[in-house]
Design a protein that fits this description.
414 residues; alpha+beta; Leucine-rich Repeat Variant; 2 domains; 5-stranded antiparallel beta sheet; 3-stranded mixed beta sheet; 17 helices; elongated
Length: 414
């Protein structure tokens, strides 16, 4: 249909890297999602379960919609700054190095919808979705041919790897279903699918969790780099077997622990988190499909080196006002000040340097019990006379039961 082709051209002008169009139908992997919820792998993300009916059938989300335009935007910021991995630094996941992507991508979806309405005469808006809507975006992106779901549960595109933001626009127009179009290949780049990490010559399926079914093998081949590299075992069960077919146990994922979890980080997982303070990229860093991924061409997604990492001592010293000033307009605001300082306390404990003690001690009197308890844990990890004395003073005045328990355990560890 001419409209479908014109939409592709217009999307290119908006800067998106990939586009595919599918009918608005239930996701193919709805049973896997139900099983994932039943296993409790979503942790405290109650909205995933509470709005499951909408995720299981997008026709409930947008009853008048007939077509779904699925889009991908490359956000790859390139290599991290030199001191990014230093234990004294707090690391941020790559997607947070620029401004909040919701504020960048969603207006473009509204612009696309307005353009379509002008063409068709429609007077009702479409449904714009940028990962906060109850939609299984990766399922539809794979169906639309944008890529395949890898063992790390990320959508992997042949040319861009997994450094992509996904978005969808649900519209009532009856558009022609189409496979992915690579809209903006880099000069000299080869837009054809990359070889499988296991070697060439395999048939591949856009739905790799069907491994072993109908003679189709996964594009991941025999590669298990992401499973092996995950520090907390979020992709591998205690038995050493995958948690499920291309599933993630969010309760053990560093991204979940540093962003979505609102309460205390489990004590057994804290030593495994290293110096990540917002998100985690490990399972993507090791993926072979990301080795030659091009950098983003979106000016609005250009990375700010100051948002890639920050000295832990600076993060520990943040108060509410300085947090708002420093991270206004950034994705980091999702975790709030108490969450980021909590995460910095864990990273400081893993750093183990006595230089952090003078900055941690004032946090024992922080207004947030969540911060007081994690600061206690960090002081217990670092040890020393000053830490022990500070914990003893805090124990005499701490009224919160959980924070008091953290103080007691930290004192016992010194």
């Amino acid at each position: 249909m001419p409209l479908t082709l014109d939409i592709r051209d217009h999307v290119h002008g908006l800067g998106f890297d990939l586009i595919g169009i599918v009918p608005v139908e239930p996701p193919e992997h709805r049973a896997a999602f139900v099983n994932w919820l039943a296993a409790g792998y979503h942790g405290e993300m109650a909205s995933l379960a509470n709005r499951a009916a909408l995720r299981l059938d997008p026709r409930r989300l947008a009853p008048d919609a007939r077509s779904m335009i699925v889009l991908a935007a490359n956000y790859n910021p390139g290599p991290p700054p030199p001191d990014w991995a230093a234990p004294s630094q707090g690391r941020f996941a790559r997607y947070a190095w620029a401004a909040d992507y919701h504020d960048i991508i969603k207006p473009r979806l509204y612009e696309l919808d307005a353009w379509i309405r002008a063409r068709t005469g429609r007077d009702t808006p479409g449904k714009a979705c940028v990962d906060t809507a109850p939609l299984l975006e990766r399922d539809f992106a794979a169906r639309a041919g944008l890529g395949f779901i890898g063992r790390n549960s990320c959508l992997i595109t042949p040319r861009l790897g997994s450094w992509t933001f996904l978005a969808a626009l649900l519209v009532p127009e009856d558009l022609s279903p189409s496979r992915s179009a690579d809209l903006s290949p880099s000069p000299g780049a080869n837009p054809t699918p990359s070889p499988s990490p296991a070697g060439g010559g395999e048939r591949v399926s856009p739905f790799p969790h069907r491994e072993g079914g109908r003679g189709v093998r996964s594009p991941c081949g025999q590669c298990t780099r992401c499973l092996d590299a995950c520090p907390t075992g979020a992709l591998v069960a205690p038995t050493g077997e995958p948690v499920g077919p291309y599933m993630l146990d969010a309760r053990r994922c560093i991204s979940y622990l540093t962003i979505e979890l609102r309460g205390p980080i489990p004590r057994d997982l804290r030593p495994l988190m290293g110096n990540w303070v917002f998100g985690c990229d490990i399972c993507q860093q090791v993926c072979p499909y990301n080795r030659a991924a091009p950098r983003t061409t979106w000016p609005a997604l250009a990375p700010d080196p100051a948002r890639a990492a920050a000295p832990l001592l600076d993060l520990l010293a943040l108060d509410a006002a300085s947090f708002r000033a420093r991270y206004r307009g950034a994705a980091v605001t999702r975790t709030k000040r108490r969450g980021l300082v909590r995460n910095a306390c864990v990273a400081a404990g893993n750093w183990g340097n006595p230089a952090a003690i003078p900055t941690l001690i004032p946090l024992l009197a922080d207004p947030e019990p969540l911060v007081r308890g994690h600061a206690s844990w960090a002081l217990g990890c670092i040890g020393g006379r000053a830490a022990h004395q500070a914990l003893a003073r805090a124990a005499a005045t701490e009224m919160d039961l959980w924070a008091n328990e953290e103080i007691s355990l930290a004192r016992g560890a010194i």
